[in-house]
Model the fold of this input.
Amino acid sequence: DVVMTQSPLSLPVTPGQPASISCRSSQSIVHSDGSTYLHWFQQRPGQSPRRLIYKVSNRDSGVPDRFSGSGSGTDFTLKISRVEAEDIGVYYCLQGANWPTFGQGTKVEI
Amino acid sequence: EVQLVQSGGDLVQSGGSLRLSCIASGFTFSNYWMTWVRQAPGKGLEFVTKTNQDGSGKHYMDSVKGRFTVSRDNARNSLYLQMNNLRVDDTAVYYCARDPGFSAVDVWGQGTMVTVSS
Done:
């Protein structure tokens, strides 16, 4: 299976400041169709996960534009331009090119 | 409203069986792959199984092959997970989720707790 490695695993943040989470795959996750199926999820305490970003950089409807995704090949990043209190939780990357595998999760806390 | 409502979680002894259910509403269920994802207490997320639109294609994580069976009833907008020979390390919250393709799961159920005791 493709191993997804996130860093950091814990991210103390300050409201109003930017934050960034890295996700690296153990092999290229570019599908044979040319697309890269790397997605990002947020899980707030006590809630089900919620998709934020799909296919590297496409933000879901209703997701604030302070969230952005980027990257290619094996190296991907989720950025929050200005952290707000409601952003606390655990963030996961997920590759869907092969049997789906999540990163370990990054806990964002204020 | 697009929604997945789950039921069936319980406390069961090791070696026992359990069936989880997930009822979809607000979208055309038969158009989508569906998945089960689990989360052990205090741990991360892992895909358990996924099934294609008509149930003819199914994939499982290695540790549940031969023990878990995913099925669906498109007439009832329902997804199921039959879990047999349960082990302590199957203890987790189980989520059903809609998969529009390549595991980009975009709708999640509320989760249901499965606890396996020794």
Notes: The two ends of chain B are 40 Å apart (CA to CA). The CA atoms of residues 24 and 77 of chain B lie 5 Å apart. Chain B is about 0% helix and 50% strand.
